[in-house]
Structure formats: structure tokens, C-alpha cells
Amino acid sequence: MxxxxxxxxxxxxxxxxxxxxxxxxxxxxxxxxxxxESINRGxxxxxxxxxDELLKAHAGKNLRATLDYDYAVSNSDVSFICVPTPTDExxxxxxxxxxxxxRSIGERLKDKGSYHVVVVKSTVVPQTTQQVVxxxxxxxSGKKAGLDFGVGMNPEFLREGKAVHDFMHPxxxxxGGDDPKALGIIKGLYAGYTCPILExxxxxxxxxxxxxxxxxxxxxSFSNEVGNICKRLGIDTYxxxxxxxxxxxxSPYFLNSGLGFGGSCFPKDxxxxxxxxxxxxxxxxxxxxxxxxxxxxxxxxISLLKKHVPDLKDKRIxxxxxxxxxxxxxxxxxxxxxxIGSLLAEGAKVAAYDPMATDNMKKVYPNIKYAKTxxxxxxxxxxxxxxTEWAEFKKLDSFKSMRKPVVIDGRRxxxxxxxxxxxxxxxx
Length: 428
Ligand code: UGA
Known about the structure:
Elements: E1 2-6, H1 10-21, E2 25-29, H2 33-40, H3 51-58, E3 63-66, H4 69-74, E4 78-81, H5 96-109, E5 117-120, H6 128-141, E6 150-153, H7 163-168, E7 173-177, H8 180-189, E8 197-200, H9 202-233, H10 237-245, H11 266-279, H12 285-308, E9 316-320, H13 336-345, E10 349-353, H14 358-364, E11 369-370, H15 374-378, E12 383-386, E13 406-409, E14 422-425
Parallel strand pairs: 1-2, 1-4, 2-3, 4-5, 5-6, 7-8, 9-10, 9-12, 10-11, 12-13, 13-14
Antiparallel strand pairs: 6-7
Helix pairs in contact: 1-3, 5-6, 9-11, 9-12, 11-12, 12-13
The structure holds uridine-5'-diphosphate-glucuronic acid.
């Protein structure tokens, strides 16, 4: 199949590279010449495990990138919209890029002789494909959806850092379509997959994406609330959740308590679902509380720290981990941001370390000290905070170089036993 991908962020680039790997002819379109040039050279514009190899193997062969919509739409049969959908200041999603992409595709469909399917992959709130994308496509092309061209919605369930693996080995594929021809063509793209493929209408597909992320975020906030209770009762919440997660109806995943969730998806998607619910006159009490619990965890961690170091003024605090999770350089909504903010507000001197995310955090906090290794950050520190679940923190052995070996663990990375340290787990 000939596919065009609109937008080469992490979803677009991974989708394009994986579809090329599955044997399709792929053309990626972006407005950024640097990204286009990078993909054509076979160099990923973002870090994503396994993407390097895929681009090397397919760039210049069955994977190309261009700035030219005309070329991309006229040389493909299916276009995937993979542009960002940020939230505005009220928590509602900003559809500017989705609208622009829809208009640009629609204008090219005007003169296109053959049938074309437009698929929304960007995360959009329910009814967006039907009420925003389709009308723009129809207006710009002067053609009728469901008749002259098809429209679909195919949400992504890709974890950052594991996106290539998740694309190739999904738990399920959800295909939304408001007409059978479009549905059939989209389904054909996933012909070799053995996982369940769910066919629904576009608004149901959109809702499945939001509810999946909102549910995972809820599991985390629930685990954090349980963890906060366990901490006060002297119970190890990780043992509790191990016991709870063995129930097949619950599953053992996303029950790790600690500093809470960050990233470009969970906070944004929960806010957008809250925004959509309020728009239709429903107050989503549970979802609001999910965010409230999440926002409270960094404060809880600072309170624990102050139990051991009551006056943080001029104290050197090592913050280990800046990325929103391990194996990525992404710091969007990272829990380390409010943690460092509180430390600075209390007059502490922060020495931060992250194996990948330092450069990104320098844009947020240019004036703190950035160490090249965890050991360097710990040297002479009055306390240490672990904010990201990097595997290397499990092997840390340099607490003795601290002035006072106080470790506040937000991710359960350190084994306190056998080490001469004052240890506090956030929820255990
Ligand atoms: C998430 C979803 O997992 C993907 O399925 C989805 O496709 C993606 O959002 C998206 O909408 O594009 P991602 O944001 O990459 O993926 O990160 P996750 O691995 O889900 O982790 C999110 C946050 O939750 C991290 O800050 C992590 O530290 C935290 N987390 C995760 C916990 O605090 N506890 C857990 O048990 C699991």
C-alpha cells in the first residue's frame, strides 16, 4: 500500500518507519525542513529504541520525507494525520494542527482521481473526526466523505521509548471508520497482525484511546493513594499491590506507586477528557481526583525530605532522574520539575543528574548544577531524591560520599537494607 504520514513527531516517524518495514511505500510530510532532511538521511529526528535501524534500512528506498503535500497525497492511497494535539490553558485540546493538516490534505484531494482514505492517528477527543476533520476535508476538496473518499480513526497505543516494539507487537488494534470501504482499507494495512482487531465507529475509537490512558493514569493515582495510606500504617505497598495485581481482573501492571505520572500523554489526555466532559455538562469527579493525587505526590516527597532535613536553605540536594520516565530524554510534565521547583523555593542548592535528559532540563532550570554522573551529584550532598526509575539507580553505591546519607526514594529504586543510609520510600 502507498501511505503518506502527516507529521513526523514520535508517533508519525515510528508509524512511517514501521509501515515501511511491513513492506509499504511510505512518504512522510512535515513543515520542518530539518526533520525532513534527517529522515531522508536515515537519522531519526527523535530518540526511540529501534528506530535507528528501521530508518537506516528503509530511508531513500520505500521511506521518504518531503515538505510537499501535493507529492505526498498524489503518490499515496492512505494518509495518516499524526500531528500534535496540545492542550490549551483551559485543558481543552488545541486542534489547530489537525485542522491545518485536514485542510492541506483536502485541497489535494480536489484533483485526485483515485479513492483516498484519511486516517486520524493524533489523539483527539470523541467526535473530532466526524465533526471537525470530515467537514474540513469535504469543504476543501468539494467531495463527499464515504463516497468520494474515506475517513477513519486509528489510535496509537505506543509507549515512548518502546514505540517500535509496541507498533510491531500490539495488544490490540483499534480501527474506527464511519464507512465499510475505509474500514476495510485500514484493516488491510494490519493484515499480518495476530492480535485482536476491533472495528468501531470513529468516535468510539477516539474514546478508546482516551479511556485507555485515563484508566492507566487512574491505576497509578489509585496505587499512590493506597501507598500514602500504607506508608502511614507501616505497610509495604509494593507487597500489597503484588498481592492485588495477581488477581487476573486487576493485572500487575501500572500499580507502581511513587512520584506519579508525567509525560506528554497521561496528564494531557486526562485533562482533555475532563475538558470534554465539562463541555457536555458532566462533572468527572474521579478523573479530577486522579490529577489531584498526582499533583500531590511531589509535595509529599518534599515533606518526607523535611522530616530529615527541616531547613533546606543552602543544603545541597542531589536529584537523580529528570526524565518523565526511564529510557527517554523527554522531560514533559516530569515529576522532577515540581520537585526541583519546591527545592529552589526553599533555598536549597540542587545538583541534578540524568543519563539522557540533562540538556532538556537545562532549558527549564538553567541555573542549577548538572552532574555528569550520579556519583558526582551525590558527592557532599545533604540528601538525595530519586525522581526517575532509571535502572542504573538500582546499583548506586556511593551514598557514603554524601555529607549526610539521607535518601528519599520516589521510585523504589534503592534497596535500603545493608547500606548505611537513612532511607525513606515515598509510599512504603
Ligand atoms: C502512555 C501509554 O502507556 C501508551 O500506551 C500511550 O500510547 C501513550 O501514553 C500515548 O498516549 O501516546 P508514555 O506516556 O510513553 O505512554 O509512558 P508510560 O510508560 O505509560 O508512563 C507514563 C508515566 O507513568 C511515567 O511518568 C511513569 O513513571 C509513570 N508510571 C507508570 C508510574 O508512576 N507507575 C506505574 O506503575 C507506571
